[in-house]
Each structure stands twice: as C-alpha cells, then as structure tokens.
Specification:
The protein has 568 residues and is an alpha/beta fold. Helices cover 35% and strands 14% of the residues.
Length: 568
C-alpha cells in the first residue's frame, strides 16, 4: 500500500468477526482522503488476489510498540457490519452444493453464487480445502480454476462447457531464435576461460536462491554486489536483507554491508529503474520472480514479464551482461517446479536448444516465465549479451541442510510430508524418481556459468543424480520410518479416507492436483528434460552435483523433524 500516492504508514493483520470468520485487514495513515476503491484496484494489479485486504481501515496514527515496531495487538477491528453484496441464490444442484460447501469452508452463514471467494475471506489454503472437498462431492475443480472463476456462478459456467483459457503459440513464431539456441552444443577442444563478473546487480537477494547466489558471489568474486531491495521507507528492506543473510549464514557477511554488499532501494516493477541504476555495474543476475503457483495472470505478468523487461532495460542502459534465472517448468514437465505433471500424446524432448515444443503453458507461473524468457531472447537479437539458466527443484543445501523459512509453502516438501506420514506408497510409482537440486550447489552452478559461459546461451541446471523411488523407500526404511508399498486401488481408497478426518485431510490435499481420472498419481511426464550439453559444460569448468544418497536424505528428513514439521 505504501507505493500508493498519499499513503504514509501501513500494516496488515488478520481479524475475525463475531462469527469467527477471518479477514485480511489493511491499515494506513494518510494526510488526505484516500479512494479505497482505487486503492483496491491498485493492489489487485500488484498482488495475488488472496493478498488484497478484505477491508481497509484509515488511522490517524499507527499504534507503535516502545521498540518502534507496529503494535499489531492494538490495530482495531474494521466495521464488519458494512453492507454486504446482494445475495443471489443458486439455481442448479451443482451451484447449491458449492454454495453450501463454501459456507462451511469460509465459516459463513450464507454464500450466494455471485459472492467472490477471496472477498469473502478465502485464501490459497482455503482454496485447497475447497477443491479437495468438492472432489468428495463428485465435482472436479483445479486450483487455478478458483482464481480464474472466483464466484460459484462463473465456476459452474466454466465447468459446464465454459471457454477454457488455453494458451497456444505457433512454432514459426520462434524460428527467429534458432541462431541463439544453436550456440548450445558441445564443441571439441573447448577450453573454458574464467572471466571476472565485475560489479554485480542482483535481484531477489532476499529469496532462497538469491541469498545463496549472493553468498557465492561474495566467495568467488571481488567486486561489489548491489542488491535491489523493495522499500516503503528508505531502510525497511535493507534490514530485511540483513535478517535473511543472518538466517542462512549467521554473521558471516555482517562486515560486508556497506563495503561489498550495497542495497539499492527499488522494485523490478518500476519502469524508471534505469534512472536509479548504479553506473558501474558490469553484470546483472536476475533471480527475482513471483513463484506463487496460482493467481491472476495479470499479477504474474507484471512481476515476471514486465519486471524482467525492466531489468533488461537496465542492462542495456549500463552495457551490462544479463543472466536470467528461469525454470525447467517452461518445458511442460512441471515437476521441476512442484506442479502436477502434464502427459502429452507422444514423447517429446526438451533440450537447451528447445523453447516452444507445443508444451502446455496454461499455468500462470509457467506462462509468465516462458514470456520472460521470450523477452530475453528478443533482447539478445538486438545485441544484448545474455544467458538463460533454467533451474530445477531447489532443495535443502548440503552440509547443514538449511532450508527457506517459509518451508510450509513448498509444494514438493508438502508432498514428502504427506507420503511419509501417510505410510503408504503406490506400487506404480516405484520405477520413477525424484530430483533434489540443493540450493547452494545450484547457486554455485549459476555463478560458475556466469564466469565461464562465452557463446553458450541456455543451460539446464538441475541435479543429474536423482533418487529412484525404490531406493528412496530403502533409505526411508533404513531410517526406521514405516512405509508400505500397496496397489494403486488400495492407495487411492485409503487416500480418500483421509478427507474424512480434519487431522489427515492435508494428505489428500497434497496430492489433489496430481491425480488423473482414475485416481492415480501422475509423475511420469512424456516431456523429457535433457541436460547433456549443460552437464558437459559443467564438467569442463569443474562442477559436479552431490549424490542423493542415504546421508543427504537423512539430513533432509532430520532437518524437518527438528522443526517439528515431519512427524515420522
């Protein structure tokens, strides 16, 4: 809210009405009158819908604690008696079922077919519960459908033959990039030469991967690292960057602030970023992105596409090299980013020389990263020196197994927790495998590619040492965790029973979007990601992945056990 003209201090908090329904409330101070409808529209363009407050409250003064922080306990509740939307009754059995279901999920006395799920207090967790329980009623809903069609009427119209939001391109639209991709081939006699990156501008430094890229730059390079950090006030996010580095690295880099770590207040969504860009930057590494899995495409486009374009403009303005960190999910094999897997009609291979192979791009996150890559390739045709690094499934770093603080939001981990605590494993998954790409090694690979890549343009940076599920089960048993292999029908039957108990329904919800029509978990995409070129290149520059062995899996499980998250 702080970027909205006229607003001073801001805060957000969850508040409950007398029926115990929870709502997100936004608080602000301002010297002039604020149009809250315009404020809501402004935030809707910048945030996922479930992060836009349900209510706004104007305050003359923001309550503060003696230590100078916002006193959230003394933020007042809004006027919950404000006029509600006109109730519109359901007209079909399907609409009636969903309205009654939402009344239960959202703890509301009455939900009409025109009531917006998010404006009624729904969020992403409530949406997961909504689709899981709808499945029990025989109504199949994908999580993204809730974001695209937030009212029962719109959702039912879609389910009963509405127009699907399919994203499609023509292969000929991308023929102009063939010269760029042709550089990604093994060259006999290749002799890699290390180049200094000079001063680096890094985006996303407060993120899981970005913080580790920053650490790697501090270890391997000698230049300054400018870190683009958002801020409502001059020092807000500078403090956040310091907190993040302490979380991952304790006080290791405390003395580097103001010397080599230099925060630059700005936002990738700003069109005027080149105007505040330090003039002595030689390399830009763009790791910042919205990695939420679901939401409105307008939001993802603003952050992941327009934000990338703004960073490209910065690189052009100062003549810097540009590294764009993308995702292997642009291949259509989306397990690289913890989404459900798409099966094409025939097998396809996605190489470092590939971009559009007819893969599905309907997921809003994947679509935005694909479009982000496209902006980079367009800039390369105009002369920009750029590289694209598609990364895989980021997992705990090696050594101490540290993971991101918001671990409960990681979909891959959510699946691991569910399957371990369920204690059953379907036999049809046994021949498959899972990829673990430790974040510290991924960051090391990114910096090494930045230092050594010359004409090469696209890399697939993910571990080539996966663990097959039959070996994973052996490791689990060696760790003393009970896990039984059962037939697919038994697994699905037992999985459905978890929905009946509030304590176990999270297990079904974890796999809800991974099931086909027969209730089988689908993790074997017919789109195969290839990385022979990248592995050859990494070997030339002395980089190898760790083994996903007993030691790593033990460290992985014990780390989340120590947090009280894994109860096995």
């Amino acid at each position: 809210m702080g970027s909205f003209k006229g607003i001073g201090l801001t805060a957000a908090a969850d508040k409950r009405d007398k029926e115990n329904r929870q709502y997100l409330v936004g608080y602000y101070t301002s010297a002039t009158r604020i149009d809250e409808k315009e404020l809501r529209r402004h935030l809707s363009e910048k945030l996922p819908k479930y992060m836009v407050p349900n209510y706004f409250v104007h305050l003359d003064e923001m309550p503060m604690t003696p230590s100078g922080k916002t006193d959230r306990k003394n933020l007042p509740a809004p006027d919950f008696s404000a006029p509600e939307n006109v109730y519109v009754a359901p007209r079909t059995e399907q609409e009636e079922k969903l309205c009654h279901l939402l009344e239960d999920v959202l703890h509301m006395e009455r939900v009409g077919v025109e009531d917006d799920f998010f404006e009624c207090g729904g969020d992403s967790l409530a949406a997961i519960e909504y689709i899981a329980r709808a499945h029990g009623l025989g109504i199949e809903i994908a999580l993204q459908n809730v974001f695209d069609y937030p009212t029962v009427r719109k959702l039912c119209d879609f389910l009963n033959g509405g127009i699907s939001k399919k994203i499609s391109y023509k292969p000929e639209d991308f023929e102009k990039y063939q010269g760029i991709f042709a550089q990604n081939v093994k060259v006999e006699g290749f002799s890699p030469q290390k180049k200094s990156l000079g001063n680096v501008l890094l985006t996303g430094a407060t993120g899981f991967l970005g913080a580790h890229v920053l650490s790697e730059l501090l270890k391997e390079e000698n230049g300054k690292i400018y870190c683009l950090v958002r801020s409502n006030r001059e020092n807000d996010r500078r403090g956040r960057l310091r907190e993040v580095l302490r979380y991952y690295f304790k006080d290791r880099y405390e003395q580097e602030f103001g010397k080599r770590i230099i925060p630059v207040v700005g936002d990738i969504e700003q069109e005027n970023l080149p105007d505040i860009m330090p003039g002595d930057v030689q390399t830009i590494i763009h790791t910042a992105a919205s990695v939420k899995h679901y939401g409105s495409y307008a939001y993802f486009h603003k952050v992941n596409v327009e934000g990338t374009q703004h960073m490209i403009d910065c690189a052009k303005a100062v003549g810097a090299r540009f590294l764009y960190v993308s995702t292997l999910s642009v291949s259509g094999n989306s397990m690289a980013d913890d989404f459900s897997v798409y099966r094409s009609e025939k097998e396809k291979h996605f190489y470092e020389t590939s971009f559009y192979i007819g893969q599905p791009l309907d997921n809003v996150y994947i679509h935005s990263k694909f479009e982000g890559e496209k902006r980079v390739y367009d800039a390369m045709l105009e002369g920009l020196d750029a590289k694209v690094i598609r990364v895989g499934n980021l997992t705990n770093r090696t050594g101490d197994y540290k993971f991101q603080p918001n671990y409960k939001e990681n979909a891959f981990l959510t699946r691991v927790k569910a399957i371990l605590e369920f204690g059953l494993f379907p036999d049809y998954l046994m021949p498959l495998y899972s990829e673990f790409s430790p974040v510290d090694l991924t960051a090391e690979g990114i910096v090494k590619i930045a230092e050594y890549a010359d004409r090469q343009t696209v890399f697939h940076l993910y571990s080539n040492k996966p663990i097959y599920f039959n070996r994973f089960l052996e490791v689990v048993h060696e760790l003393g965790i009970a896990m039984k292999v059962v037939g697919g029908d038994v697994f699905y039957q037992r999985l459905q029973e978890t929905v009946k108990d509030r304590k176990t329904e999270y297990i079904f919800e974890a796999f809800q979007n991974d099931m086909d029509e027969q209730g089988h978990l689908v993790y074997d995409s017919n789109i195969h990601i290839e990385s022979d070129f990248t592995l050859w290149f990494l070997k030339q520059i002395g980089f190898t992945w760790n083994e996903t062995d007993l030691e790593y899996i033990r460290g992985y499980i014990e780390y989340f056990r120590s947090l009280g998250y894994l109860e096995v």
